[in-house]
Amino acid sequence: EFFHDVICSFCFPMSARMRRIAKKYNNIEIIHRSFALAWEAKDFIRSFGSREAVKSEVLGHWEHANKNDDEHRFNIEGMRKTNFNFPLSKPALKASKAAGLIGGEDMYWDVFDRLQNKLFVENKNIEDLDVIEEAVKETSISFPDWKAQFENEETEKAVLEDFKLVQFYGVNSVPTLVINQKYSISGAQSQERIEKALARISK
Against a cut of 0.70, is the pTM above it? Predict the structure, then answer.
């Protein structure tokens, strides 16, 4: 179970690594789980003092995440020049979950990755519905089906069910992997370290 948030900078390199790992091994099932760093505006205000204060501090996190990223894909200066507040988690998490409810884990992953690319590389506001829809249309999912599911109240309920698992497992940061409901790997570890950990667990 791969716990992550669309606005989580370290989840961006971690997702790419998990894709490579899933492709390399045929005995690993990836289940995507939502974790919200800022579900609502009050979460940002509580952590940073105001919505306006978030971006400057978060861009410092991006610098570290860019060093962690194997391809160094983050467009930090581009984001610094944007004029929107740093986005909340809720809209993009719901968008990803809607895709998963329609097309399964692979479709969830495709939408999740496109949304992360919109934020970290293209510097677009993934709290904006137009940007979210743009990302969805760049995948192979049926847009009308996705739109209907996105607007269905069961989608938000499914995200909230993931939050219950966050509490159950005691996950307090992302990215985090929970393996076989028993073991965890926290942080954007290197692919080599993840594979070694999975090998130990499998034994």
Answer: yes
